[in-house]
Amino acid sequence: LRRDLDDPILRARLDHLCATSDHLLGIINDVLDLSKIEAQRLMLDHFDFALGAVVDKAISMVERPGHEKGLTLSSDIAPRLRAAQLHGDPMRLAQVLINLCSNAVKFTDHGTVCLGIECLAEDSKSIALRFTVEDTGVGISNADQARLFQPFVQADNSPTREHGGTGLGLTISQRLVSLMGGTIKEIGR
Question: 75 in helix, strand or coil?
Answer without folding.
Answer: strand
